[in-house]
Amino acid sequence: MTNDLATRAKKLTRQYFGRAISLYAPLYISNYCDNHCLYCGFSRRHDISRKKLSAQEIEKECQTLAKTGLQNILILTGESRLQSPVSYIKEAVLVAGKYFPNISLEIYPLETKEYCELFLAGADGVTIYQETYDREVYKQLHPAGKKRDYDYRYQAPEKIAQAGMRHLSLGILLGLADWREDLKALFEHLRYLEKKYPGVEYSLSFPRLQKVAGDTNDYQPISDQVMLSIIATTRLMFPRVGINLSTRESAQFRDQILEFGVTKLSAGSSTRVGGYNDNEGTGQFTINDERSLVEVKEMLTKKGYDPVITDWRQIGNE
Ligand code: SF4
After folding, report:
1. What cofactor is needed (predicted)?
2. Coil vs helix vs strand at 44
3. Residue with the nearest Cα to atom 1 of ligand 1?
């Protein structure tokens, strides 16, 4: 990355976001998945212990997370309409709504009226990754399940926007295909959505692939330098768009990359179903930054940032 790119990215981030960094945590409520993504540990081909939390168990997870001070959560299910129907996700949102003002979802693609139902229940954002925009690679890596249908997935963000969701997060899984081409296609997708749905708040994520046991596919390594360039280039192209960085990245790298455009960090995370109350089961990915919310907040304050626990409350919640 050139010094000029870094300086401009820093300046734009400061100009549009000041020193604010939002904090959130994932809440996995199910790991059942009907898809066969070759790169994922939750794929249906893996013989892992499958679990789905009851409403009581979801409430227990929420209570534990809320005690840490977090107010912003991302509820995740695997992609199984059968195991995690909309009614189940809605119940989870209603339970979580008792504890958190910000609830986002990372679930299988729905129809507009279903997203609408979840919005009315209290969800205010949805995350959905196309994973890769290379159709050929997409086809090879998604041999079974509904996710095979590239176009169906591509259309989901538009349905989310039509449903009235406040926040929409898109992303690519870095390493699956040529990152330059994927980044270009992601930018085009976002430009299209921004133009058609200007009222939505957008953010982007760039998780780096972590290879799972038994996966013999060749992926493209993504260096720290490339990650930095991706974040800084995104900031230049989209000065007002949020950029999320998860605990897949190490504490040291997250601290270092912050100033180039990152606006949202996960903290004190578990990627296991029920992981805030027990230590059993397999996580979706390995956590490389194990700091608690308090520790991440301390780091931010020390660096001169303002940790933001929530920037949104629905009218009538108080
Ligand atoms: S990436 Fe998502 S859809 Fe694919 S196997 Fe993993 S959990 Fe399922």
Report:
1. [4Fe-4S] cluster
2. coil
3. 40
Residue 12: its H or E element: helix 3-17
Tell me which residues have their CB closer than 6 angstroms to ligand 1.
Answer: 33, 35, 37, 40, 42-43, 78-79, 147
Which one of 30, 42, 44, 215 would you pick to mutate in the ligand 1 pocket, going by the greatest count of ligand atoms within 8 A of its CB? 42
Neighbour count for residue 191 (Cβ, 10 Å): 12
What is the helix (H) or strand (E) element at residue 130, kind and residue range? Answer: strand 125-131
- Could you tell me the distance, in angstroms and rounded to a whole number, from the CA of residue 37 to the centre of ligand 1? 6
Q: If you write DSSP's letter for every residue of 88-131 in order, what string do you get?
A: HHHHHHHHHTTT-SEEEEE-S---HHHHHHHHHHT--EEEEEEE
Q: For 155-207, what is each residue's pLDDT tens digit?
A: 999 999 999 999 999 999 999 999 999 999 999 999 999 999 999 999 999 99
Can you name the residues that pair with 21 across neighbouring β-strands? 307
Backbone region of residue 215 per phi and psi (left: phi > 0; alpha: psi in -120 to 50; beta: other values): beta
CA of 35 to the centre of ligand 1 (A): 6
Q: Rounded distance, CA 208 to CA 129, Å?
A: 13
Which CATH number does the domain 3-304 belong to among 3.50.50.60, 3.20.190.10, 3.40.50.2300, 3.20.20.70?
3.20.20.70
